Amino acid sequence: HDSQNCGPIIRAHSSIRSVPILPATIAPATILPATIPLTILPTMLPLKSESELWKSLRRHIPVSWSVTRVENRLKSGIPDVFICAEGIQFWIELKITKNNRLFLSPLQVSWNFTNWKAGGVNFILVHPVDELRANSFYLFSGDQGPELVQGGLRAISLNEGRGISPILVAPSPMAMMRDILPIARNIQNRG
Description:
- The protein has helices at about 25-30, 50-60, 105-115, 145-150, 175-190; strands spanning about 65-70, 80-85, 90-95, 120-130, 135-140, 170.
- By secondary structure, it is an alpha+beta fold.
- Strands 1-2-3-4-5-6 form a six-stranded mixed sheet, with helices on both faces.
């Protein structure tokens, strides 16, 4: 399809190869090292609801992006936000977590997993409510829903090889929205 067209995409069935999600050129520049003391980051009160999380993110979305907040009362599993920016389409499921527990409904897990495996670009964005991690915004790929439901944020590993690795850990909503488009573009071109 035309890379500048953000209309519906119809894809023929094809096999999807497993490829690394983040190239080395993106990962070091965007993932917050676990060793940075929180005292050097600007302090921020934790956001208590998905609505507050959305408001904080929305303030940092460029006006040139087409953004739709999906208010779905049918509980169909469709993510909360649809974005089209510079010809790249992606979905974001917003989640707030308390005590490391993450609730994704079976329909949300299924929608995100199926869309990702079909070649779609979709994310699960998680913000912990606790004071120690108020400056942490975790971005996961849509296919990581089952592991997030099973292990919550306790399953996160910032070191490769153990647990679930987020695609991005951002220290603020501004950093998240700044870095999400290059990641979405890279994922869309995965093969």
